[in-house]
Amino acid sequence: MKNGFYNEFDCETLELKGIADYRGPFQIDRDRVIYSHAFRRLQSKTQVFLSGEYDFYRTRLTHSLEVAQIGRSICRFLRSRGDPLSDGFFIDEDLVEAVCLSHDLGHPPFGHSGERALHELMRADGGFEGNAQTLRIVTECIYQNASGHRGMKPTRAFLDGILKYKRLHGEGNDPDNHFIYDEQAAYRRFVFGERSAPPEWGDGEKLNRLKSIECQIMDWADDTAYSLNDIVDGVRAGFLNTEKIRVWRERADLSEVGGEAISTLLRAIEEDRLEPVFSRKIGHFLQAVRLVPTENFLSDLSNRHCFALGVDPAIREEAEVYKRLAYEVIFRSAPLQQIEFKGAFILEKLFRALCDHYLDGARRRIDFLPDPTASLLEAQPDCRTKKRLLADYLASMTDNAAIRTYKRLFDPDFGSIMEIL
């Protein structure tokens, strides 16, 4: 049975994909993400703790897999609820899975500290933003080579799903985050079907709230995964214990909902039932949603913009409490702050070394960069574009690859043939 939720507008691709096969267009999007280098590299990129520090916590890869599972479950739950959805009119699970698997592709090594470091280094040349970098990867970098082939030729619905933010960097007042690159305006126009946002939408802030239903499902699946799972990882790694949580609760000024959430967490730790209790919470969170009819300037083009995802306010508040606890006790702890400082330092040193070697008329002495990156860099006409390629290269690195590269360049005791291999 044909799914009437989607139309030709949703399935149109950025470039012609060629002869159709037995898969649907959204299955192709998903499969091309799964078999990409960018997706595999997530296994060695920081989620909370530096990659390799422990063997049980989540990496960007396992987090993305969990978000995808939650996203598919939300689709199935909404469909089971009936009206307005039915067997012939439903949110596609393959599309949502593709969006969820892709949502962190653009994150550089060393987590959010790496993202902030690259943004400062690129601030004068268009900035750096994880969501914008995800868009850049799927449209330009994911299958890039020296012959010019690039991108995965995604569908409009998939591109719209990964575009959590739609404001251009130049439309804000030098924003620190939540933007896409100015050079990506053409992709936004494609997503919008060549329409422009109404004048009353302002300078981009309102555009950042314009999300397809698949993007909203991904966003809530992501919130569900990291608000609950970061707590579990934090306890298992020793960053959270009952004493620290009680001290935090005393100064946190929590509401009744927040207080009960922390009491539940404390009981789960004391009874050694943290993982089963929080695993059940995932089910509670994903079933706390509903579809709410809405309208915007794309509603007449696609059902994807005819619905908003409503979330039970108490459940959303509970998620925010866990995120706040994780941020203030885990992420702001001295050990993690020291690691974040080191990660940002490594990326800055690597970026400046590459700029000194390849930009501003510098005379190359050795080949720092592998092909096809070096060939693509040499072919660029201006410094700004070359810097973007250098940011691409560093952002694509895993934590360990960045550390090894730093050691090879700056550590006199590192760099034997065995260490390089």
Overview of the structural elements:
The mean pLDDT is 89. The chain is mainly alpha-helical and 421 residues long. The chain folds into three domains: 202 residues, Hypothetical protein af1432, CATH 1.10.3210; 122 residues, no CATH class; 81 residues, no CATH class. The protein has a two-stranded antiparallel ribbon with strand order 1-2. The chain is built from 19 helices and two strands. It is globular and about 65 Å long. It is 55% helix and 2% strand. Helix 6 runs parallel beside helix 15 and helix 10 runs antiparallel to helix 13.
Features:
mainly alpha; 2 strands; 421 residues; 55% helix; Hypothetical protein af1432; two-stranded antiparallel ribbon
Brief summary:
With 421 residues, the chain is mainly α. It is built from 19 helices and two strands.
List strands and helices in order, with pairings:
Elements: H1 8-11, H2 25-34, H3 37-40, H4 60-80, H5 93-102, H6 111-122, H7 130-141, H8 156-162, H9 185-191, H10 213-236, H11 242-252, H12 256-270, H13 274-286, E1 289-293, E2 307-311, H14 313-331, H15 334-358, H16 373-378, H17 383-396, H18 399-410, H19 417-420
Antiparallel strand pairs: 1-2
Helix pairs in contact: 2-5, 4-5, 4-10, 5-8, 5-10, 6-15, 6-17, 8-9, 8-10, 10-13, 10-14, 11-12, 12-13, 12-14, 15-17, 15-18
Strand order of the largest sheet: 1-2
State the separation between the terminal residues, measured CA to CA: 53 Å
Oligomer: single chain
Give the helix tally.
19
User: Helix content range of the residues, please?
Assistant: 40-55%
DSSP, total strands: 2
CATH class of the largest domain: Mainly Alpha
Taken as a percent bin, the fraction of beta residues is: under 5%
Number of self-contained structural domains: 3
**Weakly predicted, low-confidence segments:** none
Gross morphology: globular
Estimated structural class? mainly alpha
